[in-house]
Amino acid sequence: MKVLTKEEILKSLREDGITFIPDFWTKEKCENALEELSQIPPQAFEGGQGGDKRFQHTNRYIPSAQEFLTNSFIQEIANEYSECNDADRVMTTILNHIPNKKIDSGGGWHVDSMESHQFKAFMYLTDVNEDNGPFVFVKKSKGLVDDLPMHDNNRITEETINERIKEEDIIECVAPAGTCILADTTFVHRGKQIENGKRVVYTTYFYDRG
Ligand SMILES: [Fe+2]
User: Fold this and answer.
1) Residue 58 in contact with residue 202, Cβ under 8 Å?
2) How many domains does the chain have?
3) Taking the model in full, what pTM does it have?
4) Ligand 1 centre from 105 Cα, in Å?
5) What range defines the domain where residue 138 resides?
6) CB under 8 Å to 187, separation ≥6 — which residues?
7) CATH number for the domain including 195?
8) Ligand 1 center from residue 148 Cα (angstroms)
9) Each residue of 110-134: pLDDT tens digit?
């Protein structure tokens, strides 16, 4: 597997809004994180938009999350990409399939904000396939956002996506555990509805303190 340079990562972030770093963590490291997470009581998790389970500030309690939060390579990318570069916290999201229930992470198509940038780093702790709720991202969608009709909380209907977005620009982020995804979530994205299994992800939130 070709290792991407910092410049290649930044180019892809600027052009597409997203970049993938394969094998950022080993399988063992992901399994260790899952083991640490299994010690957290269920009541520490809150329900997110879309029905996933979220554990805020995971980094305060779990060493692997703190390590992800303070990763110097990701920090360098954040610093060069935009002013949205203050690593605030790591949140864990768990998606669990429940028969006959529609569950996703994020509650459908949306943008996180209408600001100039919103940088996030994702770490897949489980293998993510088409069925267990992959992150879905519309590359090159930044320029379209101002003209897309939105409803509450920057949400975008499926009809709007079908009308305005080219299918080839929609990336389903199917990848093995250990893959790190860096994305600007002012681009259009969603979590796909889970049909099977379980998906666990660490997300680092970066803020612009300027
Ligand atoms: Fe989002």
Assistant:
1) yes
2) 1
3) 0.96
4) 8
5) 6-207
6) 17, 18, 111, 137, 138, 139, 141, 142, 145
7) 2.60.120.620
8) 16
9) 999 999 999 999 999 999 999 999 9
